[in-house]
Amino acid sequence: TSGAGVWGVYVLVRSFLIVPIGVPRGDINVAVHVSNLFFGALVFALPFVILSVLFHAFMGVLNRLIPALMVVMIGAPGLILLGLVLLIQVVSKTSLYALDYLRLIWQWWG
Fold first, then answer.
1. Among 50, 62, 69, 89, which residue's beta carbon has the most beta carbons within 10 A?
2. Rounded to an integer, what distance in angstroms lies between the CA atom of residue 13 and that of residue 53?
3. Is the dihedral of CA 27, 39, 21, 19 positive or negative?
4. What gap in Å lies between CA 109 and CA 101, rounded to an integer?
5. pTM of this prediction?
6. What would the pLDDT profile of 24-40 be if each residue is shown by its tens digit?
7. What is the 3-state secondary structure (H, E, C) of 63-104?
8. Residue-level pLDDT at 37
9. Does the CA dihedral 6-106-101-85 come out positive or negative?
10. Residues in CB range of 71: below 8 A, 6 or more apart
């Protein structure tokens, strides 16, 4: 096993040790970190959502133009291929930003 569940509990417990409940700390700004994480997730997911909607719209048009064609037989592998190609592109573009941000969090985490 990978121990991911244990790691998640460890991170949760460590977060309460660093920032106790009800104790304000002036040296951290949690809202900035949360907004940066949300922005990173949005930047990562937005190309997938846009291209998925466009791909499904194209498959709908193709289904109307050629009703005898089994669009599902073309659409499912095409969507998987499009997702993998897009994943490679997005990860290669955002990995440096993510690594820098993770280094910053690791330094802050202590």
1. 62
2. 40
3. negative
4. 12
5. 0.57
6. 665 566 677 777 778 87
7. HHHCCCCCHHHHHHHHHHHHHHHHHHHHHHHHHHHHHHHHHH
8. 76
9. negative
10. 59, 62, 63
